[in-house]
Amino acid sequence: EHTMPNNVILYGSPLSLYTGKARSYFIKNTIPYTEIAPTNQHYAKTVLPAAGVQTMPTIETEDKTVIRDGTAIIDHYERGNNFSASPHTAKQKIISRLFDVIGSEGLLRPAMHYRWHYQENLPFITPHFRQMMPPVANRDELTDKIMNKMRTACLAFGANDDNKELVEEVYLEFLNLLNQHFEQQPYLLGGKPCIGDFGLIAPMYAHLGRDPKPLSIMQTQAVAAYRWVERMNRPEADCGEFGSNSNAFLANDEIPATLIALLKHIAEDFVPETLAAAKCINDWLDTQPTLAANTAIERGVGFGEFELRGTKITALAQPYRFYLLKRMQDDYAQLTEQDQTEVKSLLNECGLSELLTCTISRDITRHNNLEVWC
Description:
By secondary structure, the chain is α+β, with helices and mostly antiparallel strands. The chain has helices at residues 19-28, 41-51, 70-80, 90-106, 108-116, 122-131, 139-156, 164-184, 195-206, 212-221, 223-231, 257-286, 319-333, 337-350, and strands at residues 8-11, 33-36, 58-60, 66-68, 303-308, 311-316, 364-367, 370-373.
C-alpha cells in the first residue's frame, strides 16, 4: 500500500457523472486533491465503513474526515469558503439552486441515452469501467456485469428504443439554448461559477461532454457550451473570448434572457417528471407507516409516468431529487415577501413555479453520510 498523499483524496472516476461536480468545485476553488478509483485496501477498510455505502464521489480530507456525495462535499467547502459559489441575491440564489437539481437529476435521461445507446462509445468507456474494478482474476467479468447494470439503469431513467428520437430532439434543443447562453456569458450567472454550474457540469462533462458520440455533437453543434465544459475544469476563469472578466455574478440580481429561454425549455419535461415522481413517492410513503427515521433513502421507489410531446415516459421516482429541491424551497421560504414575489414571477414566466410547492410528505436529511428519511 502506497502512503496516502496529504491533500484531499477524491474517490471517483473521470467516467462518473457525480464525481464531475465535486472535481470541478475543487479545481475552481484551487483545493489540492488526488483522484483515485475506489479500489484500494485503504478505501475498503477505512473509507467505505465511514461513507456508509459505495458511491462516487467520496472524499477523505487531510484530517481523515470522510464525506460521501457531491452535494455534501461542496457544502462542506462552501462553509469554509464563505459561500463564494452561492449567490446572495434572491433570483440568482434560487436559479443557482434550481440548476443544481436540473444537473443532478433532470439530465439523466439524455446522459444515459447517449452513453449506452451508441456502440461507438464502448471502446472508450469499457477501459474506464475496468479501472474501477478491483484487480482480481475475474476483472473483465465484473466489468461486463457492472456495465450491463448501468445499461439497465439507462432504461429506468426513461430512455428506451421507443422514445430515443424524442430524447435526442429535446436534448438537442436544450444544447442549442445552452450554447446561446454561453455565447453571451462565461458561466450561468455571469463571470464566475455558481452552485448551479457545479450541478450542471455533472452530466455535461462525464457523459455528454466526454463520451465520443455526445462529445462530437457538442464540439460541432455547440462550441460555446463545449468551451464552458472546458472552462469548468480549469483553475483560471478561462474566458478570454469575453475580453475582461468581472469574476463576479451579474449585477442587480440579473437573470439573462438567454437563461430564461433555457429554463422555459427545461420546464417542459422537468416539471411533469417532478410532479409524477412526487406522486409516486408520496403513494409509496403512504404504504410505509413504520418507516423509521434515519432509514437511508432508496435510489428509486417506483416509477412516475408523465407525458412529453404526446409521448408517455416512465422514469424512476428518485427521492434524492426532492432532497435537492427542498434546498431551493427552503431558500425561497427565507426570502422577504418582496423577493418572493419577484422570484415567483420569474419562475412563472419560465413555467417552473410549481417547483416551489411540489413536495414529498416526509423530509430527507443526512445522517452518518447517508441521505435518510426524517
